[in-house]
Amino acid sequence: MQRITRLTMLLIIFTVTTVKADEETHGAYLTAGYNWFNFDDDRTLGDEDDLFYGLGYQINDNVGLELKYSDFGADYYSLSSVYRYLPRSESTFFWKLGVGRYQDFVDDRGSVNLGAGFEAHFTDQFSMTFGVDSVFMFNEDYTDWVPYIGLNYYFGNSHSKSAAKPAPAPVPAAPVAKDSDNDGVNDELDQCPASKPGVSVDANGCELDSDGDGVVDSLDQCLQTPAGAKVDASGCRIVLTEDVSIQLSVKFANNSNVVTDEYRSEIKKVADFMKSYPDTSVVIEGHTDSRGKATYNQQLSEKRAIAVMQYLVAEFGVEQARVSAIGKGEVEPIADNETAAGRATNRRVQAEIKTSVSKPQ
User: Fold this and answer.
1) What is the DSSP code string of 214-266?
2) Most trustworthy range by pLDDT among 22-31, 222-231, 294-303
3) Three-class SS of residue 309?
4) All structural domains of the chain
5) Is the pLDDT score of 45 beyond 70?
6) CB contact at 8 A, 146 and 122
7) Whole-model pTM?
8) Mean pLDDT for the stretch of residues 40-62
9) pLDDT tens column, 143-174
10) For the chain, which has fewer Cβ within 10 Å, the N-terminal or C-terminal residue?
11) In angstroms, rounded to a whole number, what is the distance separating the alpha carbons of residues 298 and 106?
């Protein structure tokens, strides 16, 4: 029986190894080595060791099949699928899953095999294998362990070492950058592709407007116009010749100097006006109704005027030097202090800004 099994395996090995693989990463290999059978403690068998030999076939870069035979007093042969984490010719860890069979004159048992190990390659053809298999017996509560060391020989050359490298793809010629208006910004980025020769441009290829007044530098005769100032077509501030004005009116609760958010838009209008006409300044007047002592009302009116002044400066960035505040107390009512509605009207802060501008000719 043993001689027939060995002869059969040798015949299979000879037949397969004479066939060349279609793919250089695939193909047959021989394996041989030494293993140690450590039988389950519940079995009344001593440990055995013996040579093994076998045949493998690499199906693709990672998956192969392996047939092995060993004689340790009984014939043991197994067929396993092998998964290698790296292609052949590269050292790698692997794991195995397969079936096997113990067979002698009195016993014949099947098994399921699970194993793992490491394969160290010395050349394309030769590698050393270190591994251990666990053998689970069918219909028995036994688990045997089989450590082993082996030597593999691969037929043919590996794809990674011998395969001809494909010719590199031709590198396309870099497109020639084009700058039609010669402003230093290529056409594909230029948002102003017809800039005048010699003008300074920004990163978008558009002519600079250094002071942000809407007039480009090449036409701007006043290059340092204050931000927000009204300018003419030459980029210069409009001459003051026509009267314009804006009024401010903020109301307060009784005995309070708190500016509520409902008047934010009212105060913002004053701020916008002053930014448009940078020469203007404003005096903010605080007023009270007639209830209470006159000295207290005078102080309260000053606090109201200062509160609006601070709101104008802090919230809208109007220069402090352009804003002042005074308190008028109760002496300048604009409604009847004998009624609640009249008193509410008199509790106020007001201001009027007047200046003169000329319209562009």
Assistant:
1) SS-TTT-S-TTPPTT--B-TTS-BPP--EEEEEEEEEE--TT--PPPGGGHHH
2) 294-303
3) helix
4) 2-160 (2.40.160.20), 242-357 (3.30.1330.60)
5) no
6) no
7) 0.39
8) 78
9) 778 899 999 898 876 544 444 566 777 777 66
10) C
11) 123
